[in-house]
């Protein structure tokens, strides 16, 4: 199992900069600096990845027709040359792309506004910046579109949250010793548990939580707040904070028996690095980050270390592509599209 973004940063800071000490791994300024360099490294790794690695297969868009727009998946980057759009239950009839101005011309000049859609275009964006998809003709129904082989966005590497501050509130409420922690939530999933807060002792009082961490990542849309039971060491969900701006939660009186699920572990957490092969996480991300931080104090103007690291990136993807290309020469079983009788591959399709 590969490492999360937080593990990559923590292990690099702890073992390569301070020889095992946890002090440097919990320094937020150093963590933010490390994540900055990690993002720079990620871009190089992503750009060198083979094109099929960056393609998303089987995305789904729920589109209400009748002149409305559907929203492309959150990890959509652009169409590329491989993207296909289908209506669910019509897999053999992909929609044809047309330019936005052609779509508007159809809407102005064509009287018919119903029927199974045959064309699509991408036009405008949501408030969150996600592209909208529009189809033609439209109908008074809801279609589920299947979007295959679009180019994915480079993943956002989300570090774990720092510790919030727990404080004693007013009566009436909980009794016992409690601590809190936070996770970050994106459209892809949830990070592992952040650093736990200080412990407070309540005597029929409410729990207040301040300095709730805010993520610098644009992909973080909400945060989850967890708390122990009285005197306990495991955490359960208290509430979901549906933004990435609020920094306090006051008046927690949720009884221990009503606490929700536990936060994700490092195995189940979603932080961006899980999209890459395990050896890439350790060989490229940890290795690159270690060098970026230790060589010339991480000065990005010093390109000598980066040139050597990029050679390793190219070698890694070269070996990865070579390994992946081997089974491509084997016969293809299952449904094979666009074959005609007489094609030597035809006998392998069923």
Task: Summarize the helices and strands and which ones pair or pack.
Blueprint: H1 5-17, H2 28-48, E1 55-56, E2 59-64, E3 70-71, E4 76-78, E5 84-87, E6 96-97, H3 100-109, E7 119-125, E8 131-136, E9 142-148, E10 150-152, E11 165-168, E12 174-178, E13 180-185, E14 200-205, E15 207-210, E16 222-228, E17 235-241, E18 249-252, H4 278-294, H5 304-325
Parallel strand pairs: 6-7
Antiparallel strand pairs: 1-10, 2-9, 3-8, 4-10, 5-9, 7-8, 11-15, 12-14, 13-16, 15-18, 16-17
Helix pairs in contact: 1-2, 1-4, 2-4, 4-5
Description:
This protein has 350 residues and is of the alpha+beta class. The chain folds into 3 domains: 1-54 and 273-350, no CATH class; 58-148, no CATH class; 160-270, no CATH class. It is 24% helix and 24% strand. The chain contains 5 helices and 18 strands. The protein has helices at residues 5-17, 28-48, 100-109, 278-294, 304-325; strands at 55-56, 59-64, 70-71, 76-78, 84-87, 96-97, 119-125, 131-136, 142-148, 150-152, 165-168, 174-178, 180-185, 200-205, 207-210, 222-228, 235-241, 249-252. The protein has a 4-stranded mixed beta sheet with strand order 3-8-7-6. It is flat, with a radius of gyration of 25 Å. The chain starts with a helix and ends in a 25-residue tail after the last helix. The relative contact order is 0.15. The model is unreliable at 325-350 (pLDDT under 50).
